[in-house]
Write a structure and sequence with these properties.
476 residues; alpha+beta; Uridine Diphospho-n-acetylenolpyruvylglucosamine Reductase, domain 2; Alpha-Beta Plaits; 4 domains; seven-stranded antiparallel β-sheet; five-stranded antiparallel β-sheet; 16 helices; FAD; D-2-hydroxyglutarate dehydrogenase
Length: 476
C-alpha cells in the first residue's frame, strides 16, 4: 500500500460525516455508534499500549450486512477493524487511527448442531464459554479453554488461533475448525472446507484465515468440532525447588499417562494470588516454582499411578510438596491459582511477552532469558508462568508505582531486542498464542524470514487488494 492510501484509511479527520450516515443505512437502526463512551469501549482490547480512536462502531447482524460494510469500506477507502470479546493482548483489535470498528456482538447465535458429526455451527460472536456449555449440554466437550473464556468470542479465537491451558492434549483452535464462511477484503463470501473431515482438493484456504487477525477478511460463520467429555478430571499442584526440576516431572508423568494440561508458575506469581485472600494456598510449603497438571482419573488405578509418580518425583528431589484434588471445588480452586493470574496482575500494568520454543529447549531458553531480565530489570518485579507442557512461557514485568506507563513501556521495550534475539536463537516464536497485532509487528522478523513475510504480504494483497482489513496489524 502507498502512503496516500494509508492516510485515507486511518486519518479520522478524513472520514466525512456523510460517509457515517451512509454506513447507517447498511445495518439496522441504532447499530452504528459514535458516542465517546462506545468509541473507547469498542476501540480497544486488553492491551494498554495504544489509545483507542475509532471513527464509529458498527454492529452487523447478518452475513449480508457484513458484506455491505466491506463493500462500502472499499468504495470509500475506509479501514475496518474487527472487534470480538476485546480480550486480546497484542492490540490486534485496537482502532487507534480513526478506523471503523466492526463488532460482532449481535452475531452471537449457535445455528446448527450435528450429533453424528460432533460439530456445531457458530456465528463469530458466540462466547467461548457459551460453546463449552452447549457442548456439555449435549454430552460433548469443547476443549479450547483459557481465563477469558467467559468473554472471548469464537471469531476472535479463530483470528488469533487461540491456545490456552489444554493445548498439550487438544491442540490450538486451528485443530477444531472444520469449516469457515468468510467475507474477504473485497466483500466476497467464501465457504471454506465445507465441514469435511477429508478434503484433498488443493489449497485449504480455511487455515489462512485462522490466525490472520482479521487482515484477510472477517469470519462470519464457523463449524467447530467437538470431543467426548473427559472423565473425572483431576488436578495436582506440585512444588519444585527450581525450574530445572519441572521438566523431569513433566517427563515422569507423561511416561505414565496422557495429561490434559501441564502449567507452571513462579512463587511470586502465587503470592499475588494469595494476597487476594479468596483462594487457599495449595499446601503450607512455599517453593520456588509450581507445576499444575491435570489428567483423567478414569479408574482408581490411574489415580494410584499419579500418586506413585508423585512419590517418585519426591524421592528424586524434583518435588518438595504437592496436593491432588479430591472434589470439583478443590479442582476449581487449584486451577484458579494459575488461571486468575492474568486478571490479578492487571492492576500492575504488566509488560507481557508471550514466547515459545520446543519443549525440550525450555530449560536452557528460560535460563538465558532469566539472565537478560535480571541484568536489565534489577528493580522490576518479574513474574513467570505459562503453558510449560507445550513450550509456551509468559514473561510479565510489573510496573513500579513511581514510573508512568510510557516510561515503563519504554524501558521494557529496550530489552525486547535481546529477548527476541534469544527467541530467534532457539528457533522459537515471539508470540505463541496472543497474536502479532501492533505490539509484536516490529519484531516479526525474529520468527519469520524475509521470504515468508513477502509471501504473507502477497496473500494479504490477494484477499484485500485495497488494504482496508485491519491495516497496521501483523506488519506495518
Amino acid at each position: 500500500m502507498n502512503d496516500t492510501r494509508v492516510a485515507l484509511m486511518t486519518d479520522a479527520a478524513l472520514i466525512d460525516p456523510a460517509l457515517i450516515e451512509a454506513l447507517k443505512t447498511l445495518v439496522e437502526p441504532g447499530k452504528v455508534l459514535t458516542d465517546s463512551a462506545s468509541l473507547d469501549t469498542y476501540g480497544k482490547d486488553w492491551t494498554k499500549h495504544y489509545a483507542p480512536a475509532p471513527s464509529a462502531i458498527v454492529f452487523p447482524k447478518t452475513v449480508e450486512e457484513v458484506q455491505a460494510i466491506v463493500r462500502w469500506a472499499n468504495q470509500h477507502r475506509v479501514a475496518l477493524v474487527p472487534s470480538g470479546g476485546r480480550t486480546g493482548l497484542s492490540a490486534a483489535a485496537v482502532a487507534a487511527h480513526g478506523e471503523v470498528v466492526v463488532a460482532f456482538d449481535y452475531m452471537n447465535r449457535i445455528l446448527d448442531f450435528n450429533a453424528t458429526d460432533r460439530s456445531v455451527v457458530c456465528q463469530p460472536g458466540v462466547i467461548t464459554e457459551q460453546l463449552q456449555n452447549f457442548a456439555e449440554e449435549n454430552g460433548l466437550y469443547y476443549p479450547v479453554d483459557f481465563a477469558s473464556a467467559g468473554s472471548s468470542q469464537i471469531g476472535g479465537n479463530i483470528g488469533t488461533n487461540a491456545g490456552g491451558i489444554k493445548v498439550i492434549r487438544y491442540g490450538m483452535t486451528r485443530n477444531w475448525v472444520v469449516g469457515l464462511k468468510v467475507v474477504t477484503g473485497e466483500g466476497e463470501l467464501l465457504e471454506l472446507n465445507k465441514d469435511l473431515a477429508k478434503n484433498a482438493t488443493g489449497y485449504d484456504l480455511r487455515h489462512l484465515f485462522i490466525g490472520a487477525e482479521g487482515t484477510l477478511g472477517f469470519v462470519v460463520e464457523a463449524t467447530m468440532r467437538l470431543e467426548r467429555q473427559p472423565t473425572n478430571l483431576t488436578a495436582m499442584v506440585l512444588g519444585t525447588p527450581d525450574f530445572e526440576s519441572i521438566m523431569p516431572v513433566l517427563h515422569a508423568f507423561q511416561s505414565k499417562m496422557d495429561l490434559t494440561a501441564f502449567e507452571f508458575f513462579a512463587d511470586n506469581a502465587l503470592g499475588k494470588i494469595l494476597e487476594r485472600g479468596d483462594i487457599p494456598a495449595p499446601f503450607e510449603t512455599r517453593c520456588a516454582f509450581y507445576a499444575l497438571l491435570e489428567f483423567e482419573a478414569i479408574t482408581e488405578q490411574r489415580a494410584d499411578e499419579a500418586l506413585a509418580t508423585f512419590e517418585h518425583c519426591v524421592e528424586q528431589g524434583w518435588v518438595i510438596d504437592g496436593v491432588m484434588s479430591q472434589s470439583e471445588t478443590q479442582l476449581r480452586n487449584l486451577w484458579r491459582l494459575r488461571e486468575d493470574l492474568s486478571e490479578t496482575i492487571a492492576p500492575f500494568t504488566p509488560y507481557k511477552n508471550d514466547i515459545s520454543v520446543t519443549v525440550s529447549k525450555v530449560p536452557a531458553f528460560l535460563a538465558e532469558l532469566e539472565g537478560i531480565v535480571s541484568a536489565n530489570y534489577p528493580d522490576f518485579e518479574v513474574l513467570w508462568y505459562g503453558h510449560i507442557g507445550d513450550g509456551n512461557l509468559h514473561l510479565n514485568i510489573l510496573k513500579p508505582a513511581n514510573l508512568s506507563k510510557d516510561e515503563f513501556f519504554g524501558k521494557c521495550a529496550t530489552v525486547n531486542k535481546w529477548v527476541f534475539e534469544t527467541v530467534q536463537k532457539y528457533n522459537g516464536s515471539i508470540s505463541a498464542e496472543h497474536g502479532v497485532g501492533m505490539t509484536k509487528r516490529d519484531y516479526l522478523t525474529y520468527s519469520r524470514s524475509p521470504a515468508e513475510i513477502a509471501y504473507m504480504r502477497a496473500i494479504k494483497a490477494a484477499f484485500d487488494p485495497n488494504g482496508i482489513m485491519n491495516p497496521g496489524k501483523i506488519f506495518a
